[in-house]
């Protein structure tokens, strides 16, 4: 079969066979080699299916489960390579324990690399989070990797020499369709987000500098080819975006696909999945075959949630190999059934056993204190007055975001921070409240303070938009009629507590005698109503046209809750870290925290004779501060207690 006939047959087959398994097993000419690239990314130390924050099993994470998919995918293919796209050694308490508590002595193997060595990874690159613990720790960790780690756009400060090996040429014996063996030289090159020198400036300044990903590729890919690489695979710890190119992009993989000589790209960093709906609308993309600008690309989620596959069909002509066609796909370790998260595969017992001691040591670690709190942290009254359980989260978010925004065009903008009381009774029952006493605080308490695995985001808003954000949040309250005597319930039971955003950095009051401006779907319900009163920044009425950075989470920034002005279009920071990881690191950094609320918001006095009531835990009675407007009234039914807040003053 000549090349033209081969490609015609391949195109016909591809029209009816677009899955990776079908693509990898369909009939081809004998002189053809199938090569399967398997990839993981953004593991963030999630080797075992366990959530150390909530201190329980989690079926949605874990390389131990991904390992089962790896074994199956290998069995399906004659030739395969296993690659990792970084952010491996930081991201959960296991990583923090190894880096901050136990350390690595000579001869120790980092738990992540211990698992990767068992799985026989062929190569990896570095991600931005590899640098969080400093270069010395990174070097100690990588010393235990039984595979090369490459990165082409990190240079030594001063002499400009590569800090890591820019690339590696792997020579592998591959078997063609007739069973004949051939030597194949596979060039593997790595890239990391250039922003590491800003995000980890304290650890990296004066030691390393970064270069543009695309320019580094243009420099080294021809060198790889000149040294005999038959194919080139890029490990790009950088996401997919087709925003206009200016250089130094954080998410440069779309442009990387346009560099001549790159045959396949494993990407990540964004904690998303490609091919898939996360990237619907990405230009010059063949979603069915997982190609970007004609190059096969895969982004396999995060925390071991997916295994990425790129199936290449290689053809040799004149002693040179080339990629005749390819398809990329992803395989998940879990799915949702009847609103339940269900594991699709079991953990690899060898991985579980290998990390048993590390896991048990980490459990002891997360159950130990990471700092101290000088005041109790509870959410008993978080829906009716400014509260320390929200304050500590908003403080941590500002601390993190200011570092991330340093050196960017947004550095000079004032930073506000939005947080909500996640555990505030309701359907969760009378015990569903945060309650951390004065004294030592443990890592697992972070789950009490920040319930969801959101990742941190920041948006740019005008003062007018901040006001409307708060107006939507004020829908948490029923309208109170001050002229009506007797009991009136304050809280709207249909309004989730996680949508009651408090914004710190401004001061304001909420007038519940007015109707809610927005309904629960974010639609303008009472255009003439304005519950938000006396909104001020730095003691003066807020400038409605001034721009602010507001730190929040991916759910809210992306339009979750249907808040006005929030649809994902004004996001200026997509941090790879969870909000609760930020919180843990904030507490660890300070050691002793004073989470007392700053009283930046309150319910306006409305006068009249209304008895304004709300339910909370019976335990809240002991937490009523002296001089508070809150008083206990008795039983509220269903295990709750009833409280009154005096809005006459």
UniProtKB/TrEMBL annotation:
<keyword id="KW-0511">Multifunctional enzyme</keyword>
<dbReference type="Pfam" id="PF00149">
    <property type="entry name" value="Metallophos"/>
</dbReference>
<protein>
    <submittedName>
        <fullName>Bifunctional 2',3'-cyclic-nucleotide 2'-phosphodiesterase/3'-nucleotidase</fullName>
    </submittedName>
</protein>
<dbReference type="InterPro" id="IPR041827">
    <property type="entry name" value="CpdB_N"/>
</dbReference>
<dbReference type="InterPro" id="IPR008334">
    <property type="entry name" value="5'-Nucleotdase_C"/>
</dbReference>
<feature type="domain" description="5'-Nucleotidase C-terminal">
    <location>
        <begin position="370"/>
        <end position="566"/>
    </location>
</feature>
<dbReference type="InterPro" id="IPR006311">
    <property type="entry name" value="TAT_signal"/>
</dbReference>
<dbReference type="InterPro" id="IPR004843">
    <property type="entry name" value="Calcineurin-like_PHP"/>
</dbReference>
<dbReference type="InterPro" id="IPR029052">
    <property type="entry name" value="Metallo-depent_PP-like"/>
</dbReference>
<keyword id="KW-0479">Metal-binding</keyword>
<feature type="signal peptide">
    <location>
        <begin position="1"/>
        <end position="29"/>
    </location>
</feature>
<keyword id="KW-0378">Hydrolase</keyword>
<keyword id="KW-0547">Nucleotide-binding</keyword>
<keyword id="KW-0732">Signal</keyword>
<dbReference type="InterPro" id="IPR006179">
    <property type="entry name" value="5_nucleotidase/apyrase"/>
</dbReference>
<dbReference type="InterPro" id="IPR036907">
    <property type="entry name" value="5'-Nucleotdase_C_sf"/>
</dbReference>
<dbReference type="Pfam" id="PF02872">
    <property type="entry name" value="5_nucleotid_C"/>
</dbReference>
<comment type="similarity">
    <text>Belongs to the 5'-nucleotidase family.</text>
</comment>
<feature type="domain" description="Calcineurin-like phosphoesterase">
    <location>
        <begin position="36"/>
        <end position="272"/>
    </location>
</feature>
<dbReference type="InterPro" id="IPR006146">
    <property type="entry name" value="5'-Nucleotdase_CS"/>
</dbReference>
């Amino acid at each position: 079969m000549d090349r033209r006939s081969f490609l015609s047959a391949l195109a016909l087959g591809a029209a009816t066979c677009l899955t990776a398994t079908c693509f990898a097993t369909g009939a081809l000419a004998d002189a053809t080699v199938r090569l399967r690239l398997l990839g993981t990314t953004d593991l963030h130390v999630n080797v075992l299916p366990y959530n150390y924050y909530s201190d329980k099993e989690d079926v949605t994470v874990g390389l131990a489960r991904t390992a089962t998919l790896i074994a199956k995918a290998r069995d399906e293919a004659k030739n395969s390579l296993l690659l990792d796209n970084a952010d491996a050694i930081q991201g959960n308490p296991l990583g923090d324990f190894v880096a901050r508590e136990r350390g690595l002595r000579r001869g120790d193997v980092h738990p992540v690399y211990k698992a990767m060595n068992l799985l026989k990874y062929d190569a990896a690159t570095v991600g931005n989070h590899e640098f969080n613990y400093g270069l010395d720790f990174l070097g100690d960790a990588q010393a235990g990797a039984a595979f090369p780690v490459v990165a082409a756009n990190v240079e030594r400060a001063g002499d400009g020499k590569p800090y890591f090996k820019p690339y590696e040429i792997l020579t592998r014996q591959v078997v063609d369709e007739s069973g004949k063996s051939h030597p194949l030289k596979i060039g593997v090159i790595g890239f990391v987000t250039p922003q590491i020198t800003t995000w980890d400036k304290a650890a990296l300044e004066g030691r390393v500098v970064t270069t543009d990903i695309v320019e580094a590729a243009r420099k080294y890919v021809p060198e790889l080819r000149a040294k005999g690489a038959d194919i080139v695979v890029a490990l790009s710890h950088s996401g997919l975006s087709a925003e206009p190119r200016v250089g130094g992009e954080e998410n440069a993989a779309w442009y990387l696909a346009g560099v001549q000589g790159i045959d396949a790209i494993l990407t990540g960093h964004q904690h998303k999945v490609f091919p898939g709906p996360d990237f619907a609308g990405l230009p010059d993309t063949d979603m069915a075959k997982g190609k970007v600008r004609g190059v096969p690309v895969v982004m396999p989620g995060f925390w071991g949630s997916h295994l990425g596959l790129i199936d290449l069909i290689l053809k040799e002509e004149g002693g040179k190999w080339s990629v005749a066609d390819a398809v990329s796909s992803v395989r998940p370790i879990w799915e949702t059934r009847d609103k339940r998260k269900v594991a699709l595969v079991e953990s690899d017992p060898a991985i579980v056993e290998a990390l048993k001691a590390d896991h048990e040591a980490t459990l002891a670690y997360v159950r130990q204190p990471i700092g101290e709190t000088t005041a109790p942290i509870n959410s008993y009254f978080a829906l009716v007055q400014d509260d320390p359980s929200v304050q500590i989260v908003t403080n941590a978010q500002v601390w993190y975001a200011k570092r991330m925004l340093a050196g960017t065009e947004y550095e000079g903008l004032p930073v506000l921070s939005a947080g909500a009381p996640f555990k505030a009774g309701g359907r969760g029952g009378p015990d569903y409240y945060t309650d951390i006493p004065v004294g030592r605080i443990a890592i697992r308490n972070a789950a009490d303070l920040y319930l969801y695995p959101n990742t941190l985001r920041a948006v740019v808003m005008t003062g007018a938009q901040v006001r409307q954000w708060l107006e939507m949040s004020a829908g948490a309250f029923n309208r109170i009629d001050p002229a009506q005597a007797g009991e009136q319930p304050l809280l709207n039971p249909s309004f989730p507590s996680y949508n009651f955003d408090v914004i710190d950095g401004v001061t304001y009051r909420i007038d519940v005698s007015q109707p809610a401006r927005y309904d629960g779907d974010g639609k303008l319900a009472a255009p003439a109503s304005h519950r938000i009163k006396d909104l001020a920044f730095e003691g003066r009425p807020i400038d409605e046209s001034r721009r602010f950075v507001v730190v929040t989470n991916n759910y809210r920034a992306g339009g979750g809750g249907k808040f006005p002005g929030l649809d994902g279009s004004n996001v200026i920071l997509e941090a790879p870290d969870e909000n609760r990881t930020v919180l843990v690191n904030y507490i660890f950094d300070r050691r002793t925290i004073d989470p007392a609320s700053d009283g930046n918001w309150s319910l306006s006095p409305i006068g009249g004779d209304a008895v304004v009531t709300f339910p909370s835990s019976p335990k809240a009675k002991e937490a009523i501060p002296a001089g508070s407007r809150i008083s206990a009234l008795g039983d509220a039914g269903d295990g709750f207690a009833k409280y009154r807040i005096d809005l006459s003053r």
